[in-house]
Hints:
The protein is α/β, with parallel strands linked by helices and 293 residues long. The chain is built from twelve helices and ten strands. Helix content is 43%, strand content 11%. It starts with 20 loop residues before the first helix and ends with a strand.
Amino acid sequence: LSSTPFPASFFHVPMPLSLNLYIELKVLRSRKYFLRYKPIPYRVNVLASKILYWVGCTTRYLVPELSSSMTNLLKKAGIEYFILNDEICCGYPLVLTGDLNAFAENVRRVINMVKELDLDLVVSNCPGCYRCFTEFYPQVLGYTPFKVMHSTRLINDLLRSGRLRIARRFELLVTYHDPCDLGRHSGIYDLPRQIINSVPGIKLVEMERSLDAARCCGSGGALRLLIPQLSTQISVTRIKDDVSPLNVNALITACPTCVKGLRDGVSIAHLMYGIKPIEVLDIVQLIDMVTEA
């Protein structure tokens, strides 16, 4: 451990893990093994801030329509923002796969890129990037390098300030999927629900497994890369067992990885079990649809 830039407490999962997958998952589910870093609370005047919109790899390459919706919202609100054309990965996959020295080097590269812009705030619609910036970067650097906000908080602030105005009514029955990195790991549960409930005509119903008991979409934690069959099985189970019984019109979430995984789950559940296809939307897309400046 001495060869890495991390304290011993960073290695929060006992190693080596048992080869028995069930035991591994039980270990990972036990919260006492997770280091709970809490960033120092701060207040941000979004309207007076110079903002970097951190797009993230999943949004940029797999669900680029999310970045279009995000930039639409920023433009509607009259927010000055920047995007890094040469943006690199935040480094979260390196943490997940255990390459912590490479992660530390990646952190320094990102910090150098962001510092050159002299920004007030970094905003991301990816909970993985958000968690990486607020939880893991301080463990490398010893301090929180910049103020970070997830898109749900930004949207909520813009709606409350009147910079975004809901102008359309949506008659939809929806449910909300809690992303692991936004919910269990970052404690953001209420903001997405407040935003959804602010849209006239929408009725939000909860899945039995929601909040901190929510089932994973199946695509997080590098599982989709390492064990794709299991990843697909989890996403299909989420749709078949948790979403389908509610007979909703749409599934809302707040994570590009979840959007990708759950859309695949909807398609496969339809092919395998004849389950009615539904729309899967990120909350950024939903609010882009119903708002005007």
